């Protein structure tokens, strides 16, 4: 019994310090339109997720059309074996999300694709949706899928609480139990310090 207990404790120690033995691991890769993507099942802030991506020669996914949106959401929500309630984001209506590469942290309301966190990127949206100041609009007819897209009236982004500077895709309708601000698969702006799974993209050579 003593030997068994010693073995168990040693295994637990090795897992903790060498392998980060953690249900968050077990990434899933897929391809679309000449690019390879990876669902990373490690909980990180938006900044940490972008840093992880750049270390791997990638960036957080930057979604430019509906085809890319659909394949990324389906891969994450169905193929990657992620429970839709693996986490609950309080400032995002109490549902689960995953990070993508959009931010307005450099200038409130100026949303750019910056999956490598360089401070530069394509500006695709300006302002806030109907749940905020209601003056938001896509830049140069860029593709967007903010919460409320299903009604053709964008409710997000709304900068709720004054500190929502990173975009994530919802895994359920929000707010939880109501769903009047966004549907599963749509984007929401949330606090970048939430710790979420994320999707990165590589440019295939």
What does this entry look like structurally?
By secondary structure, this protein is an alpha+beta fold. The chain is built from 3 helices and 10 strands. It has a single domain (25-203), classed as Mannose-Binding Protein A, Chain A. The longest helix has 18 residues, at 2-19. The radius of gyration is 18 Å and the shape is globular. The N and C termini lie far apart (55 Å).
- Give me the strand/helix succession: HEEHEHEEEEEEE
Overall pLDDT:
89
- What structural category arises from helix and sheet content? alpha+beta
In terms of DSSP E residues, the strand content is: 25-35%
Helices and strands in order, then pairings?
Layout: H1 2-19, E1 28-32, E2 35-44, H2 46-55, E3 59-60, H3 66-79, E4 97-103, E5 110-113, E6 122-126, E7 137-138, E8 166-170, E9 187-190, E10 196-203
Parallel strand pairs: 4-10
Antiparallel strand pairs: 1-2, 2-10, 3-10, 4-5, 4-8, 5-6, 6-7, 8-9
């Amino acid at each position: 019994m003593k030997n068994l207990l010693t073995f168990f404790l040693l295994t637990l120690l090795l897992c903790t310090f060498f392998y980060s033995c953690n249900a968050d691991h077990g990434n899933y890769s897929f391809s679309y339109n000449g690019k390879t993507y990876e669902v990373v099942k490690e909980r990180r802030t938006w900044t940490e997720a972008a840093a992880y991506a750049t270390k791997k020669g990638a960036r957080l996914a930057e979604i430019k059309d509906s085809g890319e949106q659909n394949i990324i959401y389906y891969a994450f929500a169905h193929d990657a074996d992620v429970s839709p309630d693996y986490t609950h984001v309080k400032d995002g209506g109490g549902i689960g999300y995953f990070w993508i590469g959009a931010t307005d942290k450099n200038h409130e309301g100026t949303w750019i694709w910056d999956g490598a966190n360089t401070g530069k990127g394509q500006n695709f949206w300006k302002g806030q949706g109907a749940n905020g100041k209601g003056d938001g609009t896509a830049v140069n007819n860029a593709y967007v899928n903010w919460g409320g897209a299903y009604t053709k009236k964008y409710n997000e982004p709304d900068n709720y609480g004054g500190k929502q500077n990173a975009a994530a895709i919802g895994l359920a309708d929000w707010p939880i139990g109501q769903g009047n601000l966004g549907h599963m698969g749509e984007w929401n702006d949330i606090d970048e310090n939430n710790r979420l799974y994320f999707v990165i993209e590589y440019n295939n050579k």
